[in-house]
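Weekly sync, protein design subgroup
Attendees: M.S., D.O., the rotation student, P.L. (late)

Item 1: inverse folding check
M.S. brought a backbone from last month's batch and wanted to see whether the design step gives back something sensible before we order anything. D.O. pointed out we never logged the input encoding, so this time it goes straight into the notes. Structure tokens as presented (420 positions):
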């Protein structure tokens, strides 16, 4: 018996370091905020910051890394079991001591099925990581252009305040000269106050847009001075005929496809469990009464009369069908969303071009005509106010159309998963 115990001890000591896996340590785990420079911020700089320090992207990286442990664990064989048994504990002379080593032997391809399912889980996590990267990139582009548009809105409302203030000065001069009633000056004062309120709202919206952008790299208090970019230049979108091919390479579609494969692999895992495992028993019994050791060899196998894992197998089969249908549904839904986003982009871009080429110049000329006519006494202040509001609304619609165009492009990029 002592030799048997010595043999088991040697195996335990030798195998312990070999199979032990140290817990990984990440020196960069401490929370840190990467501040952007206190200067103008370009789109490329914003993307670099977000992709390097996004908390959501970091979480996706750790999730993908965790699946390496899942694959490693799936390939581990079951541990042997060491048991001791003593008969006739009261009398040493007739005592029998039995030491047994129980070695589980998996049947039915359980280990290979587990490994296949775990490897597919790892592939899903890697694809999800690419999707998270594309999502962060899309959010950053969207947030960056929101800041650009908000900056233009602030400039527009500031211009409206200047225009209203100029009209107020002209109205005051005409009232002092006795050419118009004091009511005209009062109306001009109201227009200045309204313009100032709109400017304050635009500044508040800009502050919120700046915070949403810098939050993507974990900084709740942005320090960049302003976003730098040409908001009037709209890039082109992919052709509709290219969507089907591009969508096939999308991380969202790839994750759904791999998830469907993993569900089918899980069916194989549950099917392999229908086959019971063997237990090989080897040991030594020391019979003190006979004064000798006796070898013990045995085999144990459960009889699958009742539990054949049928419930878990049925559940896995139904989940596999669900994953297949989810994959098909996602492909259809994303294609519809791509087409809708493309349509929204085309409509918004056409509106922006129309406003820029015709409506804005016409509204500007109308305002200048009304302003000069009011100064010359040909028009009343009502015409000036109407022309001013028309010009302001045209500019606001132009910025809204630009914003809608960029949001549609960001959604297209998010679905297709561009990682430029």
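Designed sequence read out in the meeting:
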């Amino acid at each position: 018996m002592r030799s048997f115990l010595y043999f088991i001890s040697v195996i335990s000591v030798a195998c312990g370091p070999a199979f032990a896996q140290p817990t990984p340590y990440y020196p960069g785990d401490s929370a840190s905020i990467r501040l952007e420079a206190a200067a103008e911020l370009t789109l490329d700089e914003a993307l670099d910051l977000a992709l390097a320090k996004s908390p959501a992207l970091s979480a996706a990286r750790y999730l993908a890394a965790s699946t390496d442990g899942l694959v490693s664990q799936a390939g581990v064989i079951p541990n042997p079991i060491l048991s001791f048994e003593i008969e006739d504990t009261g009398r040493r002379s007739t005592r029998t001591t039995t030491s047994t080593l129980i070695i589980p032997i998996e049947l039915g391809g359980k280990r290979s099925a587990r490994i296949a399912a775990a490897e597919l889980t790892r592939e899903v996590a890697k694809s999800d990581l690419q999707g998270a990267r594309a999502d962060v990139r899309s959010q950053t582009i969207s947030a960056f252009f929101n800041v650009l548009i908000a900056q233009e809105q602030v400039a527009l409302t500031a211009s409206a305040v200047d225009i209203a203030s100029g009209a107020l000065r002209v109205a005051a001069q005409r009232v002092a000269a006795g050419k118009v009633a004091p009511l005209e000056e009062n109306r001009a004062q109201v227009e200045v106050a309204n313009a100032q309120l709109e400017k304050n709202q635009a500044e508040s919206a800009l502050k919120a847009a700046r915070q949403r952008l810098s939050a993507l790299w974990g900084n709740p208090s942005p320090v960049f001075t302003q976003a730098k970019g040409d908001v009037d230049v709209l890039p082109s979108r992919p052709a509709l005929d290219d969507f089907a091919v591009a969508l096939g390479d999308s991380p969202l579609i790839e994750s759904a496809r791999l998830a469907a494969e993993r569900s089918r692999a899980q069916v194989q895992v549950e099917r392999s469990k229908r086959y019971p495992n063997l237990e090989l028993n080897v040991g030594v019994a020391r019979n003190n009464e006979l004064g000798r050791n006796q070898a013990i060899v045995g085999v144990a196998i459960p009889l699958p009369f009742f539990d054949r894992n049928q419930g878990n197998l049925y559940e896995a089969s139904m989940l596999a069908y669900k994953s297949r249908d989810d994959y098909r549904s996602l492909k259809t839904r994303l294609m519809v969303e791509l087409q809708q986003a493309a349509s929204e982009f085309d409509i918004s871009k056409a509106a922006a071009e129309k406003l820029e080429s015709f409506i804005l110049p016409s509204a500007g000329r109308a305002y200048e005509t009304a302003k000069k006519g009011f100064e010359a006494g040909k028009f009343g202040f009502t015409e000036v106010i109407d022309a001013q509001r028309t010009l302001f609304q045209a500019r606001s619609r132009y910025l809204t159309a630009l914003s809608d165009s960029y949001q549609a492009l960001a959604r297209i990029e998010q679905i297709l998963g561009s990682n430029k």
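Discussion: The longest strand covers residues 96-105. Residues 3-7, 27-31 have pLDDT under 50 and may be disordered.
Action: P.L. to compare against the previous round before Friday.
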